[in-house]
């Protein structure tokens, strides 16, 4: 059952006007055999039928399936007027590109730390074999940067294509453009990458619609036909496709990635390998933050240690379904940047967690306050009390959204 279906269940089974506590909603959801996280995302989805009465109290009302609005009768379409006058011929230049600025060798980033599946990805790129790879993982854990920096280290040309629900064949393969009064077929980034033997990185591929199926032939590594011009494009040696996504092409029922789509299985089958990208472990994330701190001339290493411990506890609690959100590695880097400007720990954290809803934000701030008042050892553990990295610690969240931990 997804969040919309769960909403309809509560609409049908809750008396009109009756307010339910967050705890009651979670209990009823769990009694249905549904992951309570679906209920949390339902409450965050801003459904018009759900009203937040007060802190932690929600009322369900309204018709879950409202009647459709009346459809206006369209005006009759006038009969087309045929014009048999001979049109001026369209001038077609040879298939070309306006520019190749999107193809480049990325610069090395001094803040990049090699970790996880980087060595395998580097070997794939270094081999120059056609080996389509799909990298899946939560937002902000370094998927895109890993591909970019592997290309930078190997000095490989790279094209990054950002996918959205509006991306279509014209954007990817190419289409006709009016340039200097002439109609010209402009090659898209996919065709350019094939001809140059580049690494084609398709970012957020799970945001695409079925229009992405135009790349099915490309993912086989064979020549493709440009239907609009009749030209056959043969991929040069070294061409490869690497895609990144937050899901594995099966959508996101829990509501975390609402724009994620279900990708056709025949399309997914053409990827040779799938890489699961997790958040970095404690020691690696510490190195990443230290490198970022150096770039912003931040010297408060104690703050960095406590930020990493804080994020680890939050992720452990998220996995245990105690909270709805996590603090990503990218967001920790944002906090370091904010700290370099304001030179105040709590001000930097508050500014960078303000995107979360009120209850989650307050829970995160409450947890950091507890960790900030504690002493950590070299492994990020609270000395003499508990493990701040989240191991062997019973961390829960009470009804008011506060972390309960033996700090």
Q: Can you walk through the features of this model?
A:
The protein is an alpha/beta fold. 34% of the residues lie in helices and 14% in strands. It contains 13 helices and 14 strands. Strands 5-8-11-4-12 form a five-stranded parallel sheet, with helices on both faces. Helix 9 (282-295) runs parallel beside helix 11 (329-342) and helix 10 (301-319) crosses helix 13 (358-372).
Rounded radius of gyration (Å): 26 Å
What is the averaged pLDDT score?
Answer: 86
Low-confidence stretches: 63-67, 84-94, 385-390
- The end-to-end distance, rounded to whole angstroms, is 37 Å
Tell me the number of helical segments per DSSP (H or I, 4 or more residues long). 13
Total number of β-strand segments? 14
Name the shape in a single word: globular
Class inferred from helices and paired strands: alpha/beta
- In percent, how much strand structure appears in the residues? 5-15%
Order of helices and strands: HEHHEEHEHEHEEHEEEEHEHHHHHEE
The major pleated sheet works out as: 5 strands, parallel
Helix percentage range: 25-40%
Q: Order of strands side by side in the largest beta sheet? A: 5-8-11-4-12
Please supply descriptive tags for the structure shown above.
407 residues, alpha/beta, five-stranded parallel sheet, three-stranded antiparallel sheet, 13 helices, 14 strands
Question: What's the arrangement of secondary structure elements?
Answer:
Blueprint: H1 3-13, E1 19-21, H2 22-31, H3 36-44, E2 50-54, E3 57-60, H4 118-127, E4 133-137, H5 143-154, E5 158-162, H6 169-172, E6 174-179, E7 182-187, H7 189-196, E8 199-203, E9 224-225, E10 232-233, E11 240-245, H8 265-268, E12 273-277, H9 282-295, H10 301-319, H11 329-342, H12 345-352, H13 358-372, E13 396-397, E14 403-404
Parallel strand pairs: 4-11, 4-12, 5-8, 8-11
Antiparallel strand pairs: 1-3, 2-3, 6-7, 9-10, 13-14
